[in-house]
From TrEMBL:
Recorded GO CC terms: cytoplasm
Catalytic activity: 4 porphobilinogen + H2O = hydroxymethylbilane + 4 NH4(+)
Protein name: Porphobilinogen deaminase
Source organism of this protein record: Nakamurella panacisegetis
Location of the Porphobilinogen deaminase N-terminal domain: 5-207
Subunit composition and interactions: Monomer.
UniProt cofactor(s): dipyrromethane
GO biological process: protoporphyrinogen IX biosynthetic process
Keyword annotations from UniProtKB, A to Z: Porphyrin biosynthesis, Transferase
Gene from which the chain derives: hemC
Length: 307
């Protein structure tokens, strides 16, 4: 019998695409076989407001409990959706090479940010995206939206909104990259911490001894891991969650890590931004140090004003 890996996944198009990518890579590395095991969560069943069922954490908690129970061997997440606190009994076993970290404008008629008419309506549920949109174009009407990627794109094709902003990585992973009318470079719109990166978790017990431990180590990309550690440590040190108006983006080159972080007022009226560089091996320290700098510069006021 060959070695067989059970990859737990939510049933959304994005989750299936991401889990499929990781499963294919682990099969190629390990020589074993893999299957996707769909996990239906309360968040998928109940379409009410997320806050009423315990926030975005509900998806993660349910998928993790199936991993802890031994129903699957690994689970795959968008790293930006994972809480920054470590999970008991689990190991963040692999962070694969990050795809495009950028946000993307998907507008009607091929329009860019500069070309949108005065007062155009742009959908996003993210305070970080709203703040930066309004900083670029104070006249825009930012509309709160929810739902999966296709639902959001549908608001533009139906004419309900002039544009939406989504992560470029998610769009390309589900084959909807053609909907992008302008890639918003991280210099123009600072991404969410860990945007574009995937996280593969296994039980802590399997992180060393299992037949697939070596394949997970091979899948892990040291540069991406250092970058996301810096970005997520910054977020944690600001004591901000995944819905806070916080942007962070790190790159690693020749062992040097450069991290940019910003905290924004949701109406785009203020932004506190700073940058730090140092050895990639000190990623966590750099994230913490940049957070301390931002707090010195007044970040706590902006964060306490956020919802
Ligand atoms: N919060 C939802 C979510 N979680 C991960 C992605 C896309 C993939 C990624 O950012 O890595 C998205 C959609 C989006 O932000 O457009």
């Amino acid at each position: 019998m060959t070695d067989h890996l059970r990859v737990g996944t939510r049933g959304s198009t994005l989750a299936l695409a991401q889990s499929g990518l990781v499963a294919d890579q682990l099969v190629a590395i390990s020589g074993g076989t893999a299957e996707l095991v769909r996990i239906r969560t309360q968040g998928d069943v109940n379409q009410g407001p997320l806050a009423s069922i315990g926030g975005t954490g509900v998806f993660v908690i349910e998928v993790r409990s199936r991993l802890l129970a031994g129903d699957v061997d690994v689970i795959v997440h968008s790293l930006k959706d994972l809480p920054t606190a470590a999970a008991d009994g689990l190991s963040l076993a692999a962070v694969p090479v990050r795809e495009d970290p950028a946000d993307a404008l998907c507008a009607r008629d091929g329009l860019t940010i500069d070309e949108l008419p005065a007062g155009a309506s742009v959908g996003t549920g993210s305070p970080r995206r709203a703040a930066q949109l309004l900083r670029l174009r104070p006249d825009l009407q930012v509309r709160p939206i929810r739902g999966n990627i296709d639902t959001r794109l549908g608001l533009v094709t139906s004419g309900t909104l002039d544009a939406v902003v989504l992560a470029a990585a998610g769009l390309s992973r589900i084959g909807r990259g053609a909907a992008i009318t302008q890639r918003l470079d991280p210099n123009l719109m600072l991404p969410a911490p860990a945007q574009g990166a995937l996280a593969v978790e296994c039980r802590a017990l399997d992180a060393d001894g299992s037949w697939f431990a070596g394949a997970l180590r091979t899948l892990d990309d040291g540069g991406t891991r250092a970058a996301v550690v810096a970005e997520r440590t910054l977020l944690a040190a600001l004591e901000a969650g995944c819905t806070a108006p916080v942007g962070a983006y790190a790159t690693v080159s020749a062992g040097q890590l450069t991290l940019t972080g910003a905290v924004m007022a949701i109406d785009g009226s203020r932004e506190i931004r700073s940058r730090i560089s140092g050895p990639a091996g000190s990623a966590a320290e750099l994230g913490a140090q940049l957070a301390a700098e931002l707090i010195d510069d007044g970040a706590a006021d902006l964060l306490s004003a956020a919802p």
